[in-house]
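Convert to structure. Protein one:
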Amino acid sequence: MQISETDKIQTTQPKILVLGATGGTGRLIVSQAVARGYDVTVLVRSAEKARDLKGAKLIVGDARDETALRQALKGRDAVVSALGTPANPFREVTLLSTATRALVSAMKAERVSRLVCITGMGAGNSVGHGGFVFDNLIFPLLLRKVYADKDRQEAIVRDSGLDWVLVRPSVLNDKSGRGTLRVLTDLTDVRGGSISREDVAMFVLDQLRGDVWLHRSPLITW
């Protein structure tokens, strides 16, 4: 009987690549993945910033560099992208889309099919569901250019032909995780919300197994 790549991910501990591993959510993804017994590689621009990522193999490189990505993808089963970029209302943002475009190309070249990518509430059809302050102040004044790039990023993922999940967290906080969350695709009554980075990391890693949210863009919140 032939075993598919998806079956391999489901029946063995995944070998994963994490991008954005030195960010607040990325660090928790790495630590939780290591705690689950996963084989974790991270691609980071600074080994110094990643020195406390215990249990992960470090590869130094730029996430926009397809050559570096292909090196980091060797032997991997799946990718988690927790890439982020600082809010800057005065400069165009292209990091997320540029890196994602290079990642998709590298994943296809290395025959890695599973991608779980974090974007955020306000991307795609979740725009306008962040609550009054977020939608009318934070988003237009600080995050408009960032979210324009998140939209480009999501479009690249959707058109990739990969086995993808786009995860859209509500406003992130650093509280302890609850271990439970709401997963929503019908946003009719959603107006704001928050969620801990810890619970986001948990949900993201869960998407490496099973296909419940495959090719979908769930918003996750408390």
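Protein two, convert as well:
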Amino acid sequence: MINGRRVAVVLPAYNAALTLKQTYDEIPHDVVDDVILTDDCSRDDTSEISRGLGIHTLVHDKNRGYGGNQKTCYAAALERGADIVVMLHPDYQYTPRLVTAMASMISSDQYDVVLASRILGKGALAGGMPLYKYFANRCLTFAQNVLMGQKVSEYHSGYRVFSRKVLETLPLDACSDDFVFDNQMLAQSAWFGFRIGEISCPTKYFEEASSINFKRSVIYGLGVLGTSLSFRLAKMGLARPAIFFPAKEDEAK
């Protein structure tokens, strides 16, 4: 626990057998109360390794996508009593050693959402981020900040921490099950007025680390711009996107 708050680390996993133990071993277990892994129908022995490490392991009977995997992770963390939930990729691209610092930023009641930014400092290119991805990251982040009125250094990090209140408030079921889920979740956090903080984080690009190909990156980028545009149109009263206006809210009116 940190400041009396129960901390859970969730690991959305897909074919993470080669890096899972290394990731798990570096989690600061002195402050983490619960570790949950959801295996999104991997083709390797991710779930067997996870259970062998003593991790609470859930297995999808079919692949539900990156976003669908996270939805299962967050629901399980809330059900198991988490007050602070850390989403960490089990591919060892991000260092688990920042869990304590990031969770502390939530427990201090100064932030509701914390992002580990690869852009703050010089970690991205030094860690091997491809130049085209770095350039796309910078351009997309600039566009998003303009459209959503935010000032975030990076919207595309896969290392985040959320308070229980955030996860109970956001209509996550309205979000995509694909990679754009991460971005929609941040847009929702901004829409509902949650405080977003950042911390500098190194990153590592290597063969075993998960990464989407160029085609999927383009699809993701278009989805990101669509999400930010929807946010702006909603703020202007010109649209009511489901990710900001869940169906049950409309039905109540």
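The two ends are 41 Å apart (CA to CA). The domain at 7-245 is CATH 3.90.550.10 (Spore Coat Polysaccharide Biosynthesis Protein SpsA; Chain A).
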